Amino acid sequence: MLNRGTKLRIILTGDIHNGYGDGEASLWAMRVMREYASNNGIENVIVLGDLFDKRDHLAIDTVSNVSSFFRDADIKYNQSWIMFPGNHDMFLRNSWDINSLQFLETHINLVQGFSHFTLDNQKFWVIPFIHHEDVYMRAVKEINDKADKDDILLTHIGINGAIMNQCFLHKNWSVVNFKNTKFKYVFTGHFHNHQTVEGDEKVVYPGSPVAFRFDEGMVDHGFLVYDTSTSSWEFVDARKVAKSYGWDCPPDYVTLIDTEEYETDDLELIVENNNVKFVQTRDYTQKEMEELRTKYTIMGAQKLVWNKKHKESDLATITLSSEELAKKEMMELYLENDNPSVDINRKLILKLDELVRKDAEEKIASDEAED
């Protein structure tokens, strides 16, 4: 059933999160990919985990809508949708035995555990989500020992150096990496921003096909198309595809900070047809909030959400790029976050942090001078 067609192009997506909010954005994204596949002779779509959003239950309307979608994809469109559990699809933390994908098996190709399959002579290995990173890396080693250098790994995991979906912070504490593996590519779900991992460009996140949170709305969302004949991939913007079909798109997400100044025309252009997150750097009265709500509604905002009592450290994560964040005194930001695990003299630890950084900078400068 997997070997439909000859020289194949394959859609790669992930983190669709059916059941999030009213569910319309997820269904819209799946319909965009199904239509794109149909119009471009693509018969295989691979979902890299997190087809669903809720770990412990599915609403009846979600079950009905998703079931109907995959029945049509299989029977009417003759498409093969291949998928495996992400962490949101798993009921048990450390087992794939109970997952929310099983009831769809009539119309999808479900990979339950470690497995592999071949499409047009391209071999794909699968590792579904594994909670413990050391266990995950043992699984990677086991498969890597069996794989050939042109094989591709499909998985769902947070990787060291990847950009997380919240405030664009890097995940630098993970032990998961693929630098010493021989896979041609590692395509993975879990983080919602499309990216190649810095320092290991063979690792690629397609990202979620649609933005779900306010801090995901500042980048393009879509899916990958992998060509087995050229061993190459391209990113396709879902909103551009939909607009080319004359379809409406879900409202996008924007963040406005009350200290920023916009020209009136620019502000109207930014707000119109979007969900707006308003970040407050001071306390607002109820009257002021109502006045702002009316103002943005008149401008065409679909929805307005407040972020109250925003600290300066939190603002940094929204307004600074990841490169700029790396230059900040991260210890200071960490302590300013009122971390309950830190019960020490803050002035002392900041002084020690400053001395350590200064000593390291002097050592680096000395080494560079010697070179």
Can you give a write-up of this model?
The chain is an alpha/beta fold and 371 residues long. It has three domains: 9-244, Purple Acid Phosphatase, chain A, domain 2, CATH 3.60.21.10; 252-328, no CATH class; 341-371. Helix content is 32%, strand content 22%. The protein has ten helices and 17 strands. It has helices spanning 24-39, 60-75, 133-146, 238-244, 264-271, 286-298, 312-319, 322-327, 330-336, 346-370; strands at 9-13, 44-47, 80-83, 90-92, 95-99, 109-110, 115-119, 122-127, 152-156, 185-189, 195-197, 200-205, 222-227, 232-237, 252-257, 274-279, 303-307. It has a six-stranded mixed β-sheet. Strands 7-8-9-10-12-11 form a six-stranded mixed β-sheet, with helices on one face. Strand 7 and strand 8 form a beta hairpin. The protein is globular. The chain starts with 8 loop residues before the first strand and ends with a helix. 33% of the residues are buried.
Q: Helices and strands in order, then pairings?
A:
Layout: E1 9-13, H1 24-39, E2 44-47, H2 60-75, E3 80-83, E4 90-92, E5 95-99, E6 109-110, E7 115-119, E8 122-127, H3 133-146, E9 152-156, E10 185-189, E11 195-197, E12 200-205, E13 222-227, E14 232-237, H4 238-244, E15 252-257, H5 264-271, E16 274-279, H6 286-298, E17 303-307, H7 312-319, H8 322-327, H9 330-336, H10 346-370
Catalogue the unreliable spans. Answer: 310-328
What's the CATH H-level superfamily name of the largest domain?
Metallo-dependent phosphatases
Q: Average pLDDT value?
A: 84
Report the top-level CATH class of the largest domain: Alpha Beta
Number of helices: 10
Helix content: 25-40%
- CA radius of gyration: 23 Å
The computed structural class is alpha/beta
Largest sheet: 6 strands, mixed
Strand order of the largest sheet: 6-3-2-1-13-14
The outline comes out as globular
Instruction: Provide the domain count.
Output: 3
> Beta-sheet strand percentage?
15-25%
Give the SSE order as H and E letters: EHEHEEEEEEHEEEEEEHEHEHEHHHH
